[in-house]
Amino acid sequence: MAEQGQGSAFPDPPPFYKIFTAENVAAAQDVPEGATEGTVLQFLKPPEPPEEGYITVFGVDRSIEHQELPPLVEVVNPMTGRILWPDGLQLFPEGEVDRVTELRKLTKSMLLNYLEIVTIMGDNPNEWFPKLLDLKRIVHNVHYLLNGYRPHQARETLCMMMEEQIRRKKEEMEKIRDKCRETERLIAQFARNGVTEEDHDMEEKTVGASRAEEASSDAAKWSAIEGI
């Protein structure tokens, strides 16, 4: 049975799902903290978030503890094994910086270096490589500064997801209210017209009898035609 579950397209759920019954969930909520140890109810208590250790993200081990953005690492030329920028890769000041101001400076420098490399390619194409390294250095710094906005981006993304969920739920609630109002209007209309449930049933019986008579008449007509 286990081999069949592992090899099937939709394997069986893990066996401990049977613990999560309505009775066990209700019992786990009433049990004091720590009293579920050694019992089945201990699996119904969510574990505490880890405070230390490592997690693997895209094959790289990262510490669970909060860390600041790591410093810029030197880039080594894979062909020669030498550092591409011996005087340092970082172009902005150390410590806390105004990221918007530094990004504007780097963007202007990038544009200027691009114009210079275009000019060099027209005048002396053999001298393009040093200017290309300058462009790469600027791109590394821009990328590093933008990574500092990742926590803010994550928070904003979560806010947008929650706002979208709230919007969808409000739309569903409004649709339910519209259906309720329409139902109440129909009920009020039936009440004003004196239509009761018995009248409705009688109307359905009348319609059913009329349809049966029509079907019987059509059958008689076809029988007469076939006898000709």
From TrEMBL:
A GO cellular component annotated for this chain's UniProt record is: mediator complex
Subcellular location(s): the record lists: Nucleus
Query: Which residues fall in a compositionally biased region of kind Basic and acidic residues?
Result: 202-214
- Output the GO biological process annotations, alphabetical, semicolon-separated: regulation of transcription by RNA polymerase II
What single Pfam family name could you report for this chain, choosing any that match? Med7
Main location, first listed in the record:
nucleus
Family matches, as InterPro entries: Med7/Med21-like (IPR037212), Mediatior_Med7 (IPR009244), Mediatior_Med7_sf (IPR044888)
Sorted alphabetically, the keyword list is: Activator, Nucleus, Transcription, Transcription regulation
Q: Which GO terms describe its molecular function?
A: transcription coregulator activity
Disordered, as annotated region: 192-228
Can you tell me which family this protein belongs to?
Belongs to the Mediator complex subunit 7 family.
Q: What interactions and quaternary structure are annotated?
A: Component of the Mediator complex.
Job of this protein? Component of the Mediator complex, a coactivator involved in the regulated transcription of nearly all RNA polymerase II-dependent genes. Mediator functions as a bridge to convey information from gene-specific regulatory proteins to the basal RNA polymerase II transcription machinery.
Give the protein's recorded name.
Mediator of RNA polymerase II transcription subunit 7
Q: Which organism is it from?
A: Saitoella complicata (strain BCRC 22490 / CBS 7301 / JCM 7358 / NBRC 10748 / NRRL Y-17804)
